[in-house]
Specification:
The structure is a homodimer of 334-residue chains. Chain A has 334 residues and is α/β, with parallel strands linked by helices. Chain A is built from nine helices and 18 strands. Chain A starts with a strand and ends with a strand. The interface between A and B is large, with 37 and 37 residues.
């Protein structure tokens, strides 16, 4: 099969690879569309010790079952593979399973990803494509589930009416925009601010999201002002912006992970009783809720997604890397 | 009046000071007992920009009303003075009030503390001493309220039966021991571990608390093992121990504030969905619940408290500073 293979830092090669083999309880999916995630970018920059070259990246995947019990069905994949038996899995917190693996990773266990013609996946990670959802757009379900999970972790913590909160989203990438769309269109939050240093990105976000879209030095980012801050970037500097902007008793939801450590103002976190929540992926239930949100067209038009051919994947990664692409999401079509 | 005055870094002088004056809505309390808190120690070390010498420290106070509407009554003081009108105060989160001040602080507003013969206090911060509680021991109510608030913030977050959690407490001072006693005796938690580098302290804690009491390098502090970690110290190194020891999906409750900033493992916090909660003081309701717990003798004997005369306060601070005092709490008697 053809595949886009991550072969070294900032190096992707479109080449022939062996087809995946079917095993019991799994299916082979002929991939239609596969989105580029921020975590694929971290791997591309050599910053992810779970993704070591050579490896086929990609875990936001739609397609058609080629081999397996649902052969012929159009599907969306939940790429988070969990044991189904541990304490976390049995209480519906599958995303915390100690044995979890995700498509497009090879440490500690190899699972080739979706930037290829075919991919293998356990049957219980397969969801039927909702009729109202275009198979090209469908990979957006995965980052939407990440954003929904993050928003609902915040919603659970907030001690006031969620509609009336002041929310700040740091980062205008897919997770930032999707978090904003969920806050605004699903949760009906009235005061959303989104911040990004890339003006092109802010312009794109503004077209689709009813929010103040501002640069990081904007006067709109008032200290001690926001009930909730979503850090979808995860740099030391964005965490510092989050802790400055948050109100006493407020919630910081930490979704991005660009810089894994760094200094933080624990004084304010303590004296102002800030709750800082790390968030990772989504539960199976979140994934199902996401498909319903998308099939009901709750997030509006998804015209902010751009598409490229798989064979042009290397240049798509380069465009994201150098900031020349304004789109919050690029999906590769196979 | 006689008072113990903080006059400079590691310098306390027992000397004559002016008596406080009564104002409308307030009372003057003749102090009986006044506890030394970790935050008084931070001030003593010059590490608290809210407590600038010269200042009478002390905010854990019992006594008798000398002047005011309840003259003659034996009382315990809630030292956290709040506006009573803001959004936080009106929803019962008085501890987050933007105008809050605490006895024994002078920045931004001066309120002399309880290491003196007399102290002034608003009437609504005064609680009648429960009959079963000794006026000497009564200042313990304040740190007990801090511990109760912290434990209950954790209890609210935990997604399993609180009795069956594995809890780690970092620090065997008053807040550590009180958090342990509340977990064990009030919340009926079965698996509590307390860690402190001071063997004398561990010995004291072991006498009163049904917990594993261990040194920081103990093999009992297993990585990814504890459902909840209480960091009552707040050093960079204790926060690092907390994030190592916590289980996926677990809760870190950050009560101590020795080092206000420092590096932290945001990678684990994110990928393992850790909730980090800063906690400060207590609500009025927490303070009332605490008086009930203490008057019902729920925490057992309080023989781990040591007593000194106010005039010997300077040497008590020195003993705490150089680690020669094993007692988790010293109360000064006036």
């Amino acid at each position: 099969m053809h595949a886009l293979v991550y072969t070294g830092i900032q190096e992707l090669v479109y080449r022939e690879e062996k087809n995946p083999k079917i095993i019991n309880g799994e299916s082979i999916v002929k991939v239609s569309a596969s989105g580029i995630c921020g975590s694929d970018m971290h791997a591309y920059h050599g910053n992810d010790n779970r993704r070591i070259p050579p490896l086929i990246l990609g875990h936001e995947i739609s397609g058609t079952i080629d081999k397996g019990k649902f052969a012929g069905k159009k599907v969306i994949l939940n790429p988070l593979i969990t044991c189904g038996k541990c304490d976390y899995c049995t209480i519906g917190k599958e995303h915390l399973c100690g044995k979890r693996i995700i498509l497009g990773m090879n440490k500690p266990i190899e699972r080739q990803g979706g930037f290829a013609e075919y991919v293998s996946i356990p049957d219980h990670n397969i969801y039927e494509l909702p009729k109202t959802l275009d198979i090209k757009e469908a990979p957006i379900a995965e980052p939407t589930a990440v954003a929904l999970h993050a928003v609902e972790l915040g919603e659970k913590e907030i001690f006031k009416d969620f509609k009336n909160i002041k929310a700040l989203i740091i980062g205008g990438g897919a997770i930032g925009l999707l978090s904003g769309l969920i806050l605004s269109k699903v949760k009906k939050c009235k005061e959303v601010t989104i911040v990004d240093p890339n003006e092109k990105r802010l312009g794109e976000c503004s077209k689709y999201l009813d929010a103040k879209a501002v640069m990081p030095d904007s006067k709109s980012i008032i200290n001690d002002h926001f009930d909730i801050v979503f850090d979808t970037v995860g740099l030391e500097i964005t965490r510092q912006q989050a802790i400055k902007a948050i109100k006493p008793g407020g919630i910081i939801i930490h979704i991005g992970l660009t810089q894994p450590s760094g200094s933080f103002d624990f004084r304010k976190a303590t004296l102002q009783e800030i709750t800082f929540i790390g968030t990772y992926c989504y539960t199976n239930k979140d994934f199902e809720k996401t498909l319903k949100i998308l099939s009901d067209k709750k997030l509006g038009e998804l015209n902010w997604i751009e598409y490229r051919e798989l064979k042009d994947g290397s240049s798509a990664f380069k465009q994201i890397h150098n900031g020349s692409c304004a789109a919050p999401k690029i999906i590769l079509l196979i």
